[in-house]
């Protein structure tokens, strides 16, 4: 059973930084790279960052130039370094992976940015 555990969220002032981590357990041969999503109150969950089919980082336009995604060599952990945070980044951040045709989500970690 695949399990994802996020950590690193918190409360910061605008302009601050946070680093999120997502650790994966129970990965199998048919697991894809992990991806970051976020969901703000009253809004739909949205893509934040991930890796394309060539392994290159991809980002939502709203976070380009401010967020950096990385992963460990074993691909069992993914990180999201967030700089220049703005109040609009306030959301619960989730990591997701797909394994053998099924999506798995972590429990989320809250990021709150105050102005």
Q: Roughly what fraction of the amino acids lie in strands? A: over 45%
What is the chains' assembly state?
single chain
Helix content: under 10%
Radius of gyration: 14 Å
End-to-end gap: 40 Å
Question: Quick one: how many beta strands?
Answer: 11
Q: Quickly count the helices.
A: 0
Sheet having the most strands: 7 strands, mixed
Give the topology string: H per helix, E per strand. Answer: EEEEEEEEEEE
Overall morphology: globular
Compute the average pLDDT. 94
In terms of structural class, how would the helical and strand content be classed?
A: mainly beta
**Low-confidence runs of at least 5 consecutive residues:** none
Question: Any overview of this molecule?
Answer:
The chain has 115 residues and is mostly beta strands. 0% of the residues lie in helices and 53% in strands. It has strands spanning 3-7, 10-13, 18-25, 35-39, 46-51, 57-59, 67-71, 77-82, 91-99, 102-105, 109-114. Strands 2, 4, 5, 6, 9, 10 and 11 form a seven-stranded mixed beta sheet that branches. Strand 5 (46-51) and strand 6 form a beta hairpin. The relative contact order is 0.33.
Short description:
This protein is mostly beta strands. It is built from no helices and eleven strands. It has strands spanning 3-7, 10-13, 18-25, 35-39, 46-51, 57-59, 67-71, 77-82, 91-99, 102-105, 109-114.
